[in-house]
Protein backbone atom coordinates (compact mmCIF):
# COMPACT_ATOMS: atom_id res chain seq x y z
CA UNK A 1 0.00 0.00 0.00
CA UNK A 2 1.22 3.47 -0.78
CA UNK A 3 2.78 5.46 2.02
CA UNK A 4 0.10 8.12 1.85
CA UNK A 5 -2.59 5.59 2.69
CA UNK A 6 -0.93 4.61 5.94
CA UNK A 7 -2.14 6.56 8.95
CA UNK A 8 1.17 6.78 10.73
CA UNK A 9 4.21 4.82 11.75
CA UNK A 10 4.45 3.60 15.32
CA UNK A 11 7.81 3.75 17.03
CA UNK A 12 8.59 0.23 18.14
CA UNK A 13 11.15 -1.60 20.20
CA UNK A 14 13.39 -4.22 18.63
CA UNK A 15 11.63 -6.30 15.98
CA UNK A 16 8.44 -4.29 16.33
CA UNK A 17 9.85 -1.06 14.92
CA UNK A 18 8.29 0.36 11.78
CA UNK A 19 4.78 -1.06 11.99
CA UNK A 20 1.96 1.26 10.96
CA UNK A 21 -1.82 1.51 10.91
CA UNK A 22 -4.14 1.87 7.96
CA UNK A 23 -7.21 4.09 8.37
CA UNK A 24 -10.41 2.21 9.14
CA UNK A 25 -14.10 3.17 8.97
CA UNK A 26 -17.26 1.58 10.29
CA UNK A 27 -17.96 0.02 6.89
CA UNK A 28 -14.69 -1.92 7.18
CA UNK A 29 -15.87 -3.56 10.39
CA UNK A 30 -18.75 -5.23 8.55
CA UNK A 31 -16.27 -6.42 5.92
CA UNK A 32 -14.29 -8.13 8.68
CA UNK A 33 -17.45 -9.84 9.88
CA UNK A 34 -18.22 -10.97 6.34
CA UNK A 35 -14.67 -12.23 5.85
CA UNK A 36 -14.87 -14.08 9.17
CA UNK A 37 -18.07 -15.78 8.09
CA UNK A 38 -16.45 -16.73 4.76
CA UNK A 39 -13.48 -18.30 6.56
CA UNK A 40 -15.86 -20.15 8.87
CA UNK A 41 -17.64 -21.68 5.89
CA UNK A 42 -14.41 -22.48 4.03
CA UNK A 43 -12.94 -24.26 7.04
CA UNK A 44 -16.20 -25.39 8.64
CA UNK A 45 -15.04 -28.80 9.97
CA UNK A 46 -12.06 -27.20 11.70
CA UNK A 47 -13.80 -24.00 12.80
CA UNK A 48 -16.90 -25.78 14.09
CA UNK A 49 -14.85 -28.35 15.98
CA UNK A 50 -12.69 -25.60 17.50
CA UNK A 51 -15.81 -23.75 18.59
CA UNK A 52 -17.35 -26.95 19.93
CA UNK A 53 -14.33 -27.64 22.14
CA UNK A 54 -14.42 -24.08 23.48
CA UNK A 55 -18.16 -24.40 24.08
CA UNK A 56 -17.79 -27.84 25.62
CA UNK A 57 -15.38 -26.51 28.22
CA UNK A 58 -17.86 -23.75 29.02
CA UNK A 59 -20.78 -26.17 29.33
CA UNK A 60 -18.73 -28.45 31.60
CA UNK A 61 -17.77 -25.48 33.77
CA UNK A 62 -21.37 -24.27 34.08
CA UNK A 63 -22.66 -27.79 34.78
CA UNK A 64 -20.03 -28.24 37.47
CA UNK A 65 -21.02 -24.97 39.14
CA UNK A 66 -24.70 -25.90 39.13
CA UNK A 67 -23.93 -29.38 40.47
CA UNK A 68 -21.90 -27.84 43.27
CA UNK A 69 -24.68 -25.44 44.22
CA UNK A 70 -22.67 -22.49 42.93
CA UNK A 71 -25.07 -21.28 40.27
CA UNK A 72 -24.55 -17.71 41.48
CA UNK A 73 -20.98 -17.88 40.22
CA UNK A 74 -22.08 -18.64 36.64
CA UNK A 75 -22.26 -14.95 35.53
CA UNK A 76 -18.76 -14.36 36.89
CA UNK A 77 -17.48 -17.50 35.16
CA UNK A 78 -19.11 -16.43 31.89
CA UNK A 79 -17.38 -13.06 32.12
CA UNK A 80 -14.06 -14.72 32.88
CA UNK A 81 -14.55 -17.07 29.94
CA UNK A 82 -15.07 -14.09 27.64
CA UNK A 83 -11.91 -12.38 28.93
CA UNK A 84 -9.65 -15.28 27.93
CA UNK A 85 -11.41 -15.81 24.58
CA UNK A 86 -8.95 -13.71 22.52
CA UNK A 87 -6.05 -15.84 23.77
CA UNK A 88 -7.83 -19.14 23.15
CA UNK A 89 -8.63 -18.02 19.58
CA UNK A 90 -4.98 -18.23 18.44
CA UNK A 91 -5.74 -21.46 16.57
CA UNK A 92 -8.52 -19.70 14.67
CA UNK A 93 -6.08 -16.98 13.61
CA UNK A 94 -3.87 -19.76 12.27
CA UNK A 95 -6.76 -21.22 10.27
CA UNK A 96 -7.40 -17.85 8.64
CA UNK A 97 -3.69 -17.33 8.02
CA UNK A 98 -3.50 -20.67 6.23
CA UNK A 99 -6.57 -19.90 4.15
CA UNK A 100 -5.05 -16.56 3.16
CA UNK A 101 -1.69 -18.13 2.28
CA UNK A 102 -3.25 -21.06 0.42
CA UNK A 103 -1.73 -23.56 2.84
CA UNK A 104 -3.49 -26.85 3.65
CA UNK A 105 -5.50 -27.16 6.85
CA UNK A 106 -4.50 -29.85 9.33
CA UNK A 107 -5.19 -30.35 13.02
CA UNK A 108 -1.61 -30.56 14.24
CA UNK A 109 -0.43 -27.10 13.11
CA UNK A 110 -3.76 -25.58 14.15
CA UNK A 111 -3.75 -26.99 17.67
CA UNK A 112 0.02 -26.63 18.12
CA UNK A 113 0.37 -23.20 16.58
CA UNK A 114 3.96 -22.14 16.02
CA UNK A 115 3.51 -18.52 16.95
CA UNK A 116 6.11 -15.95 15.93
CA UNK A 117 6.44 -14.49 19.43
CA UNK A 118 5.37 -17.14 21.98
CA UNK A 119 7.07 -15.46 24.93
CA UNK A 120 5.30 -12.18 24.17
CA UNK A 121 1.94 -13.95 23.86
CA UNK A 122 2.64 -15.51 27.26
CA UNK A 123 3.03 -12.02 28.71
CA UNK A 124 -0.40 -11.05 27.39
CA UNK A 125 -1.72 -14.29 28.86
CA UNK A 126 -0.40 -13.25 32.27
CA UNK A 127 -2.01 -9.82 31.86
CA UNK A 128 -5.36 -11.42 30.99
CA UNK A 129 -5.05 -13.73 34.00
CA UNK A 130 -4.47 -10.74 36.28
CA UNK A 131 -7.49 -8.96 34.81
CA UNK A 132 -9.55 -12.10 35.32
CA UNK A 133 -8.52 -12.11 38.98
CA UNK A 134 -9.50 -8.44 39.26
CA UNK A 135 -12.91 -9.25 37.79
CA UNK A 136 -13.43 -12.19 40.17
CA UNK A 137 -12.38 -10.10 43.17
CA UNK A 138 -14.64 -7.20 42.14
CA UNK A 139 -17.59 -9.58 41.82
CA UNK A 140 -16.86 -11.03 45.25
CA UNK A 141 -16.67 -7.59 46.84
CA UNK A 142 -19.90 -6.45 45.19
CA UNK A 143 -21.72 -9.54 46.43
CA UNK A 144 -20.42 -9.01 49.97
CA UNK A 145 -21.35 -5.31 49.89
CA UNK A 146 -24.90 -5.65 48.59
CA UNK A 147 -25.93 -8.94 50.16
CA UNK A 148 -24.53 -7.98 53.57
CA UNK A 149 -23.22 -11.59 53.67
CA UNK A 150 -25.95 -12.74 56.04
CA UNK A 151 -29.20 -13.51 54.26
CA UNK A 152 -28.49 -14.30 50.59
CA UNK A 153 -27.37 -17.87 49.96
CA UNK A 154 -25.92 -18.76 46.59
CA UNK A 155 -28.82 -21.05 45.70
CA UNK A 156 -31.20 -18.06 45.96
CA UNK A 157 -28.91 -15.67 44.09
CA UNK A 158 -30.86 -15.45 40.82
CA UNK A 159 -34.18 -14.64 42.44
CA UNK A 160 -32.54 -12.14 44.78
CA UNK A 161 -30.82 -10.30 41.91
CA UNK A 162 -34.04 -10.02 39.91
CA UNK A 163 -36.43 -9.09 42.72
CA UNK A 164 -34.44 -7.19 45.35
CA UNK A 165 -33.43 -3.54 44.96
CA UNK A 166 -29.93 -4.20 46.29
CA UNK A 167 -29.64 -7.17 43.95
CA UNK A 168 -30.63 -5.11 40.93
CA UNK A 169 -28.22 -2.34 41.91
CA UNK A 170 -25.42 -4.88 42.29
CA UNK A 171 -26.27 -6.27 38.85
CA UNK A 172 -26.07 -2.82 37.25
CA UNK A 173 -22.79 -1.89 38.93
CA UNK A 174 -21.31 -5.31 38.22
CA UNK A 175 -22.28 -5.04 34.57
CA UNK A 176 -20.63 -1.62 34.29
CA UNK A 177 -17.43 -2.87 35.94
CA UNK A 178 -17.40 -6.00 33.81
CA UNK A 179 -17.96 -3.97 30.66
CA UNK A 180 -15.09 -1.67 31.59
CA UNK A 181 -12.71 -4.57 32.15
CA UNK A 182 -13.91 -6.22 28.97
CA UNK A 183 -13.36 -3.04 26.96
CA UNK A 184 -9.83 -2.74 28.32
CA UNK A 185 -9.12 -6.36 27.38
CA UNK A 186 -10.45 -5.64 23.90
CA UNK A 187 -8.31 -2.51 23.62
CA UNK A 188 -5.06 -4.32 24.40
CA UNK A 189 -5.78 -7.57 22.55
CA UNK A 190 -7.91 -6.69 19.51
CA UNK A 191 -4.87 -6.41 17.24
CA UNK A 192 -1.97 -7.49 19.44
CA UNK A 193 -2.69 -11.22 19.68
CA UNK A 194 -3.04 -11.96 15.95
CA UNK A 195 0.00 -9.73 15.33
CA UNK A 196 2.10 -11.66 17.86
CA UNK A 197 0.92 -14.94 16.38
CA UNK A 198 1.98 -13.81 12.92
CA UNK A 199 5.04 -11.59 13.43
CA UNK A 200 8.06 -11.46 15.74
CA UNK A 201 7.06 -8.30 17.57
CA UNK A 202 7.55 -7.26 21.19
CA UNK A 203 4.47 -7.08 23.38
CA UNK A 204 4.84 -3.33 24.05
CA UNK A 205 4.66 -2.54 20.34
CA UNK A 206 1.78 -4.96 19.76
CA UNK A 207 -0.33 -3.56 22.59
CA UNK A 208 0.67 -0.02 21.63
CA UNK A 209 -0.64 -0.54 18.09
CA UNK A 210 -3.89 -1.95 19.44
CA UNK A 211 -4.37 0.98 21.82
CA UNK A 212 -3.47 3.48 19.10
CA UNK A 213 -6.12 1.97 16.85
CA UNK A 214 -8.69 2.52 19.62
CA UNK A 215 -7.57 6.13 20.02
CA UNK A 216 -7.46 7.02 16.33
CA UNK A 217 -10.53 5.15 15.13
CA UNK A 218 -12.88 4.96 18.13
CA UNK A 219 -16.10 4.66 16.11
CA UNK A 220 -14.94 1.66 14.13
CA UNK A 221 -13.21 -0.06 17.05
CA UNK A 222 -16.12 0.49 19.44
CA UNK A 223 -18.50 -0.89 16.82
CA UNK A 224 -16.26 -3.94 16.52
CA UNK A 225 -16.23 -4.32 20.31
CA UNK A 226 -20.03 -3.99 20.39
CA UNK A 227 -20.45 -6.64 17.69
CA UNK A 228 -18.20 -9.04 19.61
CA UNK A 229 -20.07 -8.40 22.88
CA UNK A 230 -23.51 -8.72 21.27
CA UNK A 231 -22.60 -11.89 19.38
CA UNK A 232 -21.06 -13.43 22.50
CA UNK A 233 -24.14 -12.54 24.57
CA UNK A 234 -26.37 -14.11 21.92
CA UNK A 235 -24.25 -17.24 21.99
CA UNK A 236 -24.45 -17.42 25.78
CA UNK A 237 -28.20 -16.81 25.69
CA UNK A 238 -28.55 -19.77 23.35
CA UNK A 239 -27.34 -22.02 26.13
CA UNK A 240 -23.72 -21.70 25.02
CA UNK A 241 -24.47 -23.75 21.90
CA UNK A 242 -24.44 -20.61 19.77
CA UNK A 243 -20.80 -20.11 20.72
CA UNK A 244 -19.90 -23.06 18.47
CA UNK A 245 -20.51 -20.69 15.57
CA UNK A 246 -20.03 -17.25 17.13
CA UNK A 247 -16.62 -17.90 18.70
CA UNK A 248 -14.84 -19.15 15.56
CA UNK A 249 -16.47 -16.52 13.38
CA UNK A 250 -15.24 -13.75 15.70
CA UNK A 251 -11.78 -15.34 15.74
CA UNK A 252 -11.60 -15.38 11.95
CA UNK A 253 -12.92 -11.82 11.72
CA UNK A 254 -10.29 -10.70 14.24
CA UNK A 255 -7.60 -12.01 11.91
CA UNK A 256 -9.02 -9.97 9.04
CA UNK A 257 -9.21 -6.88 11.27
CA UNK A 258 -5.51 -7.28 12.04
CA UNK A 259 -4.56 -7.86 8.40
CA UNK A 260 -6.55 -4.81 7.33
CA UNK A 261 -5.28 -2.40 9.94
CA UNK A 262 -1.66 -3.29 10.67
CA UNK A 263 0.96 -2.79 7.98
CA UNK A 264 4.36 -4.44 8.32
CA UNK A 265 7.49 -2.43 7.45
CA UNK A 266 7.86 -4.21 4.11
CA UNK A 267 4.22 -3.67 3.18
CA UNK A 268 4.35 -0.01 4.20
CA UNK A 269 7.29 0.59 1.93
CA UNK A 270 5.49 -1.10 -0.94
Protein architecture, described:
It is a single chain. The radius of gyration is 20 Å and the shape is globular. Mean pLDDT is about 85; it is low at about 10-15. It is mainly alpha-helical and about 270 residues long. Helix 9 crosses helix 10 (about 205-215). It has helices at about 25-40, 45-65, 75-90, 90-100, 105-110, 120-145, 155-165, 165-190, 190-200, 205-215, 220-235, 245-260, 265-270, and strands at about 10, 20, 260-265. It is about 75% helix and about 0% strand. It has one domain (about 20-270). Strands 1-2-3 form a 3-stranded antiparallel beta sheet.
Quick recap:
With 270 residues, the protein is mainly α.
List keywords for this structure.
270 residues; mainly alpha; three-stranded antiparallel β-sheet; 13 helices; 74% helix; globular
Summarize the topology:
Elements: E1 8-9, E2 20-21, H1 26-42, H2 44-67, H3 74-88, H4 90-101, H5 107-111, H6 118-147, H7 157-163, H8 165-189, H9 192-198, H10 203-216, H11 218-237, H12 243-261, E3 262-263, H13 265-269
Antiparallel strand pairs: 1-2, 2-3
Helix pairs in contact: 1-2, 1-11, 1-12, 2-3, 2-12, 3-6, 3-8, 4-9, 4-12, 6-8, 7-8, 9-10, 10-11, 11-12
What number of domains?
1
Structural class: mainly alpha
Q: Mean of the pLDDT scores?
A: 84
* Low-pLDDT windows of residues: 8-16
Helix content, binned percent: over 70%
Q: Beta-strand percentage?
A: under 5%
Number of helices: 13
Amino acid sequence: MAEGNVAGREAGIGPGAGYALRPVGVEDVWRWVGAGWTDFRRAMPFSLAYGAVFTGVGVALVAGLFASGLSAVVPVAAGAFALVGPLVAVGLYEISRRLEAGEPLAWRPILLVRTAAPDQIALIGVALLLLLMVWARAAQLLFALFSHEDYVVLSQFASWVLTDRDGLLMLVIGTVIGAGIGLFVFAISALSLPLLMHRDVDVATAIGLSLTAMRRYPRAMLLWAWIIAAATAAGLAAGLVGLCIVFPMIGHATWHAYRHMIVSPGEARG
